[in-house]
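This part of the workshop introduces the protein records we will be handling. An example says more than a description, so a record of this kind follows:
>
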Amino acid sequence: MAPSRASPPPLSSDTIGLTPDQLASFHENGYLIIPEYLSKQTCESLLSKTRTMLSDFSLADHPMTKFTTGDSEAEHVGDAYFLESGDKVRFFFEEDAFDKSTGQLNKPKERAINKIGHNLHGLIPEFGEVSHAGKIGRRNAAIARDLGYRDPRLLQSMVICKQPEIGGAVPPHQDNTFLYTNKPSAVGFWIALEDATVENGCLSFAPGSHKRAPVKERFVRKPDNSGTTFEKVEGDSRWPRNFDHEETERDEEYVLGEVKAGTLVLIHGNILHKSEKNLSQKGRIIYTFHCIEGEEVYDERNWLQIPSGPAAFTKLDGSGV
């Protein structure tokens, strides 16, 4: 694995949106690392809220749903607890948090959760303030405009806990597979609330792969709504579509994305990225949300749905609503 690349310089406190150099870097590489996006105080506040949520949620009526991060051949999560989470806050367990012989938790619940999702931005004010509301929300909206969005919509948000010893590996994937629009339009805003290092399973990226790797499949609900599956994508699903190249199978070279707490990483929906299992004694907690283009079609086959339909996905326009 190649060493980490130097991070672009941080935005100054009075900068709105992206600088021309940052925008060019994003378009060239498919991701952009922006250090010091959140203050230490804001990170601590979000960590405190996360730990309270992990402590307070009840196991009494929880279906013990696990979040599976395997490849497309694996059985993926798809129970009602998961499929009905688009407008709720729900807790999903790590696969390795359970004893394989007894099926019982082998970790305290606070150290067993893989992620909390998928409507933190709408239901938990502390997270709304760093996604679409307030000063940070206005800054995020400016970034979305710089990235070319006409009607940016925030459709999901998550806290991801790469738990000590059991934090699962995430294989190479593209976010547009899971949040599909026609044409693909997702961008992830990924914010480290704790340092993410090679020891505790930081992200890594295949720079430029967003320009050569089409989305070949999408993660959808089964026709009978009994679970989820992968469906082949027909046609040209590169984003953008104006690169003159022939698609080839290749072994990608991944670059580490080690970052400090408070760092924002923008992730193009077509870029291949992954993370390794956390075998260390130190976890890493991050907050992430995704935007899509509201003018593109987001249909009923997508796994993530909300009762009022995609037109009700949160606007990322700086208004905080």
Observations:
- Helices lie at 20-29, 40-56, 80-83, 120-123, 125-128, 134-146.
- The mean pLDDT is 90.
- Residues 163 and 256 are 19 Å apart (CA to CA).
